[in-house]
């Protein structure tokens, strides 16, 4: 006598639908292997990391069945240390901060933002640069000019005009009209209303261009004889070295 379809055993279909995560979880984070507990990963319920392991995990597995997270594995150990013991890392602060933002672990983010490294970057330097008009756009413009002039050259240079006040901006424009060069190739920064000096801004420019992988240095731009102003009052040469 045949068994009707409604009485056939469900087998693996039932097993799969009732599958629950083991309390011990093996992870492959960017090629680095970790073993931890499910409760550790879900310690902060509102985090993206906790969401990854809520219900059926929304993650792929590697060939060994470990859950795979496509992030830098080196810094995940600091994330785990915090989840296990509330230990705030003192190394690789900038990189761990990026991972904390990705995993959206709010308490760790706030504690890292109180560290001198992140506080100085977010509250001091970034707040200053936010007051320099078109700062990010000018950094990209510098790079485009330097790359355009790099053909068959070891180095290329970009002239930057830096003015801190409105009065200096007017004087700089007069000086720019006297320069014997293509004025479109001069990148202007400023003016701004904040305490940092012109050399502070020049250091920021160098830091941010170097952060994009370029080798760069700067020096005052010395104009030709007969120039009406001291050129180093406003003009600086940024030198890109390609090889």
Automatic annotation (TrEMBL):
InterPro entries: BTB/POZ_dom, KCTD7/14_C, SKP1/BTB/POZ_sf, T1-type_BTB. Transmembrane segments: none annotated. Residues 23-120 form the BTB domain. One of its GO terms (biological process) is protein homooligomerization. This is KCD14 protein. It comes from Thalassarche chlororhynchos (Atlantic yellow-nosed albatross). The lineage of its organism: Eukaryota, Metazoa, Chordata, Craniata, Vertebrata.
């Amino acid at each position: 006598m045949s068994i009707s379809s409604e009485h056939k055993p469900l087998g693996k279909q039932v097993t799969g639908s009732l599958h629950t995560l083991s309390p011990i979880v093996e992870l492959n984070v960017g090629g680095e292997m970790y073993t931890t507990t499910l409760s550790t990963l879900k310690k902060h319920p509102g985090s993206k990391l906790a969401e990854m392991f809520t219900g059926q995990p929304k993650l792929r597995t590697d060939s060994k069945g470990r859950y795979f997270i496509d992030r830098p594995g080196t810094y995940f150990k600091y994330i785990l240390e915090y989840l296990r013991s509330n230990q705030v890392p003192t190394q690789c602060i900038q990189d761990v901060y990026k991972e904390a933002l990705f995993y959206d672990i709010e308490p760790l983010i706030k504690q890292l933002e109180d560290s001198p490294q992140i506080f100085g970057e977010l509250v001091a330097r970034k707040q200053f640069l936010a007051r320099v008009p078109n700062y990010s756009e000018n950094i990209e413009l510098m790079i485009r000019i330097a790359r355009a002039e790099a053909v068959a050259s070891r180095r290329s240079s970009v002239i930057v005009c830096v003015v801190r006040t409105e009065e200096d901006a007017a004087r700089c424009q007069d000086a720019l009209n006297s320069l014997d060069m293509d004025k479109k190739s001069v990148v202007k920064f400023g003016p701004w209303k904040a305490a940092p000096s012109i050399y502070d801004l020049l250091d920021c420019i160098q830091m941010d261009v170097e952060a994009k992988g370029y080798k760069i240095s700067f020096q005052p731009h010395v104009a030709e004889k007969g120039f009406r102003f001291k050129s180093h009052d406003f003009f600086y040469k940024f030198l890109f070295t390609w090889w």
